[in-house]
Design a protein that fits this description.
There is one protein chain. The protein is mainly alpha-helical. 82% of the residues lie in helices and 0% in strands.
């Protein structure tokens, strides 16, 4: 029986690199679709307002 031809190492690395690039691309795409920057900014602004509100109320009563 004949043995299968050996796989070229460089060719195998190129295939792996190509597949990893697509995997990373889709992971970034999924991350961008699920994590909205606008929501993060609005949450941060709301938290800053909530933190400032008790301090402002304490200054008015003093």
């Amino acid at each position: 029986m004949s043995e299968p031809a050996p796989i070229d190492r460089d060719e195998l690395l190129k295939k792996i690199n190509g597949k990893l690039a697509w995997i990373i691309f889709f992971l970034v795409l999924i991350t961008l679709n699920t994590c909205s920057l606008e929501d993060s900014i609005s949450d941060a602004v709301r938290d800053m307002r909530n933190d400032d509100a008790p301090a402002a109320a304490a200054e008015e009563t003093a």
